[in-house]
Amino acid sequence: MRLFVYGFGTLKWMIGSFKFADIRLERTFVADARSNFHNILFLIEYAFKAITAANITTVGIRGKNCAVVISQKKVPDKLMDPASVTYIFSLSPSLGCVMTGSIADARASVTRARGEAAEFRYKYGYEMPCDVLSKRLANINQVYTQRAYMRPLGVSMTLISLDDEHGPSLYKVDPAGYYTGYKATASGPKQQEAINFLEKKLKNKDAAPGSWEEVVELAITTLSTVLSQDFKATEIEIGVVGAPKEGDDEQGEPQSLFRKLSVDEIDKRLQSIAEKD
């Protein structure tokens, strides 16, 4: 009988210990979850700060028959080859983007985007639309915000394309996993100033009016105004869809292919702006 009572008491003690351990484990889990949640929020904030810390302002504008992205071009070291410094990338023949933020993260994101676009082309037989790629990249970025051990990329991606179904498209994807279409947008330290300028220029308009040259000039003017700086042709880089092939007449057949403007083409647009002023 004593042995039974002793065994029963030991069993009660063990059950109580397990319950206490469960309570402690639950409290620890809740505390860790809260800590991870706050850490994730901080990581997202740091990712957005990395975009402005790069000190590069970029602008994207959608026209009626074209779309344009423009970025400052800063060469941090005199010994660097300027041709190897870029924030504008081609993702597929009809898709291009400008990256703002950490260039290392930018190259990683561009590589992933190129892979997604190539896989879509192989699987479905046509080029990946801009909105579909933007959604896919936003979903990938959002996964990086779900775990504290996954660092969100400190970069913002602005994509442009031109296709028969949607016409010119302009989308932006941020580190938090949010994406949406724009008629004009900006990223970087002078983002808000550029957006305010573009809101005045495009008020009550669905897209920037005029030819592709005029849209390019509007993008240059926006960047020059918010930075209070007159650019040389080598100090900016411009990507465009809806412009003629390089070497063709400026009024030639518009192309749906993405390409970067040459230094000579940028210089022509700068001269045109100077003549208007």
UniProtKB/TrEMBL annotation:
Gene3D superfamilies in the cross-refs: Glutamine Phosphoribosylpyrophosphate, subunit 1, domain 1
Keywords (A to Z) from UniProt: Cytoplasm, Hydrolase, Nucleus, Protease, Proteasome
Major location (coarse): cytoplasm
GO terms under biological process: proteolysis involved in protein catabolic process
Any one GO CC term of the record: nucleus
Coiled-coil residue windows: none
InterPro entries per UniProt: Ntn_hydrolases_N, Proteasome_alpha, Proteasome_alpha-type, Proteasome_sua/b, Proteasome_subunit_alpha6
Compartment(s): Cytoplasm; Nucleus
Record Pfam families: Proteasome
Superkingdom of the organism of origin: Eukaryota
Gene Ontology molecular function terms on file: peptidase activity
Family statement drawn from the similarity comment of this UniProt entry: Belongs to the peptidase T1A family.
Name the UniProt record assigns to this protein: Proteasome subunit YC7alpha/Y8 (Protease yscE subunit 7), variant 2
Organism, as annotated: Orbilia oligospora (Nematode-trapping fungus)
